[in-house]
Sequence to fold (435 residues):
Amino acid sequence: MNFHSHIRKIYFLMIFLILCLSGCKKNEPLPQKTEPEKNEVVIWTWDETFNVKAAKLAAEEYTKQNRQIEIIVETKEREEILSSIKNSLSAKAYDKLPDIIMLEDYDVQGMLLLYEEEFVNLADVTEYNKFSEYKTRLCTLNGNMYGIPFDSGAAALFYRIDLLEQAGFCEKDMQYLTWDRFIEIGMEVYEKTGYAMLTLDPSDFPVMRIIMQSSGRWYVTQDGSRADIEENAALQSAFEIYKRLIETNVARGMNGWNEFISAFQNGEVVCVPSGSWIISNIKEAKEQEGLWRVAQIPVIAETQTPASNVGGSSWFVLKNSQNSEDAARFLVEMFAENDAFLDMLITQTGVIPAVKNPSVYTNYEMEDVFFGGQKVTKFLTSITDEIPIVNYGNKTYEIEAIVESEFQNVLIDGNIDLALERAQMKADALVRESE
Fold:
């Protein structure tokens, strides 16, 4: 083969390869369009059947029209939220912050006093007149409004009518009870059926708080300047009631949230004196539909109004989070201004919105088959306006830990006066520290 023939062969081979490559290129898929990056709004809250569920439903509804936003709901315990937020804010570690947190009513003022500049003032972006006064007062500091009230926390006595009937009692027997009468019924129920009326946790005193607030008292004075323990008649009565509940087997001891929930879901106790938010957990035991009823909380004396609060919560936006502006818009649109969504939450979670005029919700007068056809939402919202307003101060759980410790001494020596005296001194020191 001469030199020119060799060159021609190489030339044709190159042309062939070029044509092949160009043919392959024509069959390659076109580059895919990339979705624009979404702004993430992160929410921290607790209770899968109530707050978490409400946040996820709100996220689902909101993102239908706001596709540029992704809302991530993370379940964390109340204590975990508080400690993590305090640590991050103290260290100015803003990259570790969520955008929205839930705070229990008892924790709100303490957090605002410590970190007021770290929360978004929502006063100019929503109308607060619709919310109950005791809730808006909690969310206010120095004339600014920092929270969107969520559930009222109105306290009631939820009970199993079928278990009571085994001991010969009926719905009428559970109306407008004093604690004395409640204990009498409980003793008879335990004697005839072996069921305790309720659970008590030595490390958590929600019933103590129910008793105190129904009497218009708290662990601190109304102006929050000092502890109110030693001369607190309501707290002394609560000590006596707790002691009798335990000694008469009307109460059953337990430890922690999970044991509390499983006790009534498994049908091991008759009653649950708690906030309205407990409804979602009661309804988890679907086989108990129709067996539950709701009544007013017991009171110390017949002259008292049977209304109180326990728990309750509000939503807050952290100013230095990654997407605080998007978070504030979401929160206001879904939980402050969207009556249709809140109306839906009444059926989905059992929430009792903390508003002055609940009649705007169509489900307000709904009969609840789980509670034998009672109008539970209407009943609980009627209680809300009667709840005595007290000053929770900013050290509720810290003072309560002192009270709990002293109560253990009462179970040993029976000396309530001495226990309250010691608790007063310790609590006073705690209040002075926070000034």
Observations:
- Confidence is low (pLDDT under 50) at residues 15-21, 23-28.
